[in-house]
Amino acid sequence: MEEVLGGRMRLLIVTQYFWPENFRINDLVAELVRRGHTVTVLTGLPNYPDGSVFQQFRDNPDAYSCYGEAEIVRVPMLPRAKGGLRLMLNYLSFALSASLLGIWKLRGRQFDAIFAYEPSPITVGLPAALMRAIKRAPMAFWVLDLWPETLQAVGVVRSRRLLQIVGKLVAFIYGRCDLILAQSRSFIPQIRKYACANRRVEYFPSWAESLFDLEAATPAQEVPQRLGCFNVMFAGNIGDAQDFPAILAAAERLKQYEHIRWLIIGDGRAARWVADEIERRGLQDHVLMLGRYPVERMPSFFRHAHALLVSLKDEPIFSMTIPGKLQSYLAAGLPVVAMLNGEGADVVKNAGAGFTCAAGDHVALANGVLALSQMTDDERRAMGTNARVVSDREFDRDTLIRRLEHWLGTMSRDNLPPTISRETQ
Questions:
Q1: So what's the pLDDT on residue 296?
Q2: What is the pLDDT of residue 425?
Q3: Residues 276/284, Cβ–Cβ less than 8 Å
Q4: Residue 159, exposed/middle/buried by CB under 10 A (0-12, 13-18, 19+)?
Q5: Which string of DSSP letters, residue by residue, matches 15-30?
Q6: Which sign does the torsion angle of CA 343, 348, 352, 358 carry?
Q7: Cis omega before residue 20 (within 30°)?
Q8: How many helices (H) and strands (E) does the chain have?
């Protein structure tokens, strides 16, 4: 096991999203603080996924100035609202505000390392790179979403010229990183297409938050009770990438099987479309949209699940992705239903942790769910046990965060300019 070099560190986390929004960076910050590091978070105003600033934040912003012992430095930004143009302005407004006002708010502060969190957009790398130059601290950049490939895959950008411009932006940001972290092994060749030849790239997957103790959780009262039903649960972002047209097509195909019920936990840009389609297809008794809840509540909802559904569209970029929810699903110790291609599907298949089918194949998804519903409890329990085994082996939270500490400590010790020392900062 790697040891942390340099002891306690002063860390700056740059992220467009942070608590009270539900992202894995919250868990990472809490754990880094628990391990004795001084953590400052540069972030924006909480507005994901609804697109408007959270009312509880508006009512009392001072209550969100600290996350445990981590200091939160917030900068103004344009909320996401609705529409692709507004989303792009949201991305750019945070990058600009964090670059200008962030520098001002953090004036006189020194850091041993900078960590940028990029689930999307890539533009979070601009203020992080500027901080690296001004603070003269090395930067690690965690890539959870590949640009410009994802923009093209979900149809946000279709112009080849604009995609080339985004590619140059990606190369500019990667060129200013001391360490690039890839959420899947398949990401690494794609990252190297834009990164300098000597840029360090490491595999660093997500993990399950330390909350998924199902045995200790009380079943969520928000889930209507129905005896004898088989619950397939989807938890997470409801967006274009998750391919809900295929999910609903599978649900419609199984409409005659009264015991099969689909539970959707979460919210997102496609939620309204999904709700309308459920009504149009007459699936109100078969597909329930239960809304968005804090990540701390997820174990109580998982108590109702017999299988957990993860899906991504049939696009080359998504075959390289390990969806973040997959780690949480595996840690829950329940069978996983995976309608996706590539590395994420391989994890489930190789572990014997559930059922997989090709992305977009709603017929195979329906057949797989029906087959799972007809298995014995012991057969499904064996799949859940396999899921937990691969979770512990490949995605252990303590192991991964300790590895990150080691990398950050190494950067802090070795990668600073020779004229700067820990003592003179």
A1: 85
A2: 38
A3: no
A4: exposed
A5: -S--TTS--HHHHHHH
A6: negative
A7: yes
A8: 16, 14
pLDDT band (50, 70, 90) for residue 211: low
| pLDDT tier at 151, thresholds 50, 70, 90 | confident
DSSP string for residues in 312-339:
--S-HHHHT---HHHHHHHHHTS-EEEE
The per-residue b/e assignment along 371-409, b for 16 or more CB within 10 angstroms, e otherwise, is ebbebeeeebeebbebbbebbeebbbbeebbbbbbbbbb
Give CA–CA dist 261/259, Å, rounded: 6
CA atoms of 330 and 342, how far apart (whole Å): 17
DSSP 347-378: HHHHHT-EEEE-TT-HHHHHHHHHHHHTS-HH
Integer Cα distance of 398 and 56 in angstroms: 32
Structural contact between residues 340 and 364, judged by C-beta atoms closer than 8 angstroms: no
For 228, the 3-state DSSP assignment is coil
Q: What is the pLDDT of residues 252-262, one digit of tens each?
A: 999 999 999 99
pLDDT digits (tens, 9 = 90+) for 153-177: 777 777 888 889 989 999 999 999 9
Q: What is the pLDDT of residue 1?
A: 40
Interatomic CA distance for residues 220 and 414, integer angstroms: 49
Q: Which domains, from first to last, does the chain contain?
A: 10-207+396-414 (3.40.50.2000), 214-394 (3.40.50.2000)
Average pLDDT over residues 345-371: 97
Which structure tokens are listed for 68? Answer: 């445990």
Query: Stretch 227-236: mean pLDDT, rounded?
Result: 95
Query: Looking at residue 123, what DSSP letter applies?
Result: G
Choose among 332, 331, 310, 330: nearest CA to 321: 310
For residue 197, CA distances in Å to 132, 171, 175 come to 20, 11, 10
Give how far Cα 7 sits from Cα of 204, 335, 406, Å. Answer: 21, 40, 10
* pLDDT top residue among 403 and 424: 403
Torsion 408-388-336-341 (CA) sign: positive
The answer, yes or no, to whether residue 363 has pLDDT greater than 80, is yes
Q: Say what the pTM is.
A: 0.86
